Amino acid sequence: MTSRRYQHAATAGAVLLAAAAIGAAIHHHYVPACGFALSVLILIEAALREHRRHRRAQLECEWARRRALGENPAPLNPCCLLARSSHGQAHDHNCTGEHSLEQFLAQIEAEHRGGS
Ligand SMILES: [Zn+2]
């Protein structure tokens, strides 16, 4: 739950900095107000990124739970975070698609047995 803690800290920081920006603007300190406003935007982006990361972790946990119960859930979109960042060239060890390491090793073993 570390991402949740980061999300809450970034949200609280954004709220405090927004109050500081408003206070600085009321007292005609526009340069610090712009700095506070910029910091608010950065912290909002961080909070949203942590929210997306937490949501993805929840979806992966639910997918793994359903898989462990014997169901055959559809792969997540994207199948894994490494595939998204590598544009489909590489896949993570916990890939939810057909590119998992176990399936790759099983395919190699099947090819090796079939070839010899
Ligand atoms: Zn993948």
How would you sum up this structure in a few lines?
The chain has 116 residues and is mostly helical. It contains four helices and no strands.
Feature tags:
116 residues; mainly alpha; 2 domains; 4 helices; 0% strand; binds zinc ion
List the uncertain runs: none
Unique bound compounds: zinc ion
What is the residue-averaged pLDDT? 90
Distance, first to last CA: 49 Å
**Shape designation:** elongated
Q: How many E-type strands?
A: 0
Biggest β-sheet strands, sense, barrel: none
Supply the helix-strand structural class.
mainly alpha
| Strand residue content | under 5%
Q: In sequence order, what are the helices and strands, one letter per element?
A: HHHH
Domain unit count: 2
**Helical stretch tally:** 4
- Summarize the amount of helix as a percent range: over 70%
What is the gyration radius calculated from CA atoms?
22 Å
